Amino acid sequence: MAVFSADFLPTASWDNLRLRARLLGKVRQFFEARGFLEVETPILSADTVVDRHLEPFAVPMAGRALTGGPAETMWLQTSPELGMKRLLAAGATAIYQVTRAFRQGEQGPLHNPEFTIVEWYRVGDDMRAGMQLASDVCECLLERGPAERISYAEVFAAQTGLDPHAATAAELASRARALGVEIPASLAADDRDGWLDLLVAERVQPALGLRRPVIVYDYPASQAALARVRPGPPPVAERFELYASGIELANGYHELTDPAELRQRNRANNAWRRKEQKLDLPENSRLLAAMEAGLPPATGVAMGFDRVAMLAAGAKDLREVMAFPIDRA
Amino acid sequence: MASYNTSEFRKGLKVQLDGDPYLMIECNFVKPGKGQALYKCKLRNLLRGTVIDRTYKSGDSIEAADVEEIEAQFLYRQQDQFVFMDNKTYEQYELSKELVDEAWKYLKEGMVCSMTLFNGNPISVSPPNHVVLKIEYCEPGARGNTATNVTKPCRMETGAEILCPSFVEMGEFVKVDTRTGEYIERVKA
Fold first, then answer.
1. Residue A272: inside a domain
2. Interface of A with B in 6-65 (CB under 8 A)
3. Same-domain check for residues A190 and A138
4. Each residue of B113-128: b (16+ CB within 10 Å) or e?
């Protein structure tokens, strides 16, 4: 008798794989119709995003000559944003890309270490225009109508009764306890962003976009990532996230264009990473060079394509819409 | 002592919290947008059977529990002490009736059970899923009645009382499911 292990088989049904293909076609039609240029940038790069909570895969390079430079380590992209912003600095005005991104350690029903991102940028868009475009993409793919909009402060206050821009770490902590949130023992009393994240994960996010998709905007300035900060009071990050059925589908920035500010954030993020005993990431990048040369004002959005396909399929786990998730890759 | 980092968290991990061994029965990865990743775990206390919720930040770690499954042969019972022997090391373990719990009903001399050790000490023992026991005493069977839905209590050779169909007789052997305590079938000796 032939003995084989059934794990060579896909975890997704053929119906769902066909749905994925149809949705990919829709993505391309959508952007084509609006004059966006489809681009491809390297998945393997000498540069990587310096983020507190993203762990890139480091790839040791066999020979320096191969990399055309000093890099001995290159990185699998956590998103295509560095390459795409370099194209903006080089003259692109409206671009999109469908590509793979890689994030170490992210695994679960809504995460796979390798996943598909749809990312787009349009020069001249402010955050409002960027949110409109994200809502249009979502409406085209999910067919659940346009997204509602609500500020981070409003939705946070609605679920916790606190002002996320003003509340102290101690106030956030005591509210988390009062709300019965299970608290990680290692969460430092003064880690204000950590407490915000915990409350968002436990009490805010699950309620987002249950009736129809919702876009949350104006994030705390401390969570700007690569978005610009609009001066206050209170100063807020011009960043937004799109949710449906309590699941984050996309993240957008009115892009930071100031290289000095990026340098400062990279330094701060690495300092934080060192404190948390995480890998130091290269602070210099060709994105900085692009910013020095001049990055035009733009809004960009990254969308998790697998999650969109999952919701469109009425599925509960990414495995149902991916041919081969990580344990079968 | 070894420990597990959040990146190693998965169902089935045996860990130690406040000195007690726990089995990770669920682990959910959640990450709020660009924020800190959280691991929401359910853990079962292997001594008490209670289940607790714990949330960990990425990068946290939990001490590993020195928990081992061994094959142990039941040797004999001495009042409320049950004596087993590790089939590999021949080391003997004396277990109290509390530790043996429901398993006492099925223990026959020579039976190979699976025993869980924590820091080298037994914390639980489970008999095979199916065991064959001799009926030591029961009321006489109702002649001609072969319906299995009519049952009567039967005392087994181990002293346990098991509900069996009314047609079984004293001295016969029956197969019992040790997980449910239910009669499965009559077997020929």
1. yes
2. 51-53
3. no
4. bebbbbeeebbbbbbe
* B67-126: CATH, from 3.40.190.10, 2.70.70.10, 2.40.50.140, 2.60.40.10: 2.40.50.140
pLDDT digits (tens, 9 = 90+) for B39-57: 999 999 988 889 999 999 9
Please list, in sequence order, all residues whose beta carbon lies within 8 angstroms of the beta carbon of residue A177, skipping any fewer than 6 positions away: A183
Check whether residue A27 and residue A167 sit in a common domain.
no
User: For A200, which of B29, B32, B54 is closest by C-beta distance?
Assistant: B32
Mutate to test the interface with A, among B24, B51, B57 (most CBs of A within 10 A): B57
Per-residue pLDDT at B12: 86
Domain segments of chain B as ranges: 3-64, 67-126, 130-187
- Strand extents, DSSP E, A4-163: 37-38, 44-45, 57-60, 73-76, 94-102, 114-123, 148-151
Are A276 and B35 a contacting pair at CB < 8 A? no
For the CA atoms of B72, B77, B81, B84, the dihedral, rounded to the nearest 10 degrees, stands at: -10
Is pLDDT above 70 for A63? no
Band of the pLDDT at B1, cuts 50, 70, 90? Answer: low
Cα–Cα separations (whole angstroms), residue A117 to A25, A138, A284, B139, B165: 14, 14, 24, 72, 63
Rounded CA Rg of chain B = 22
**What number is the average pLDDT over the span A91-104?**
97
Domain encompassing residue A289: 7-147+212-328
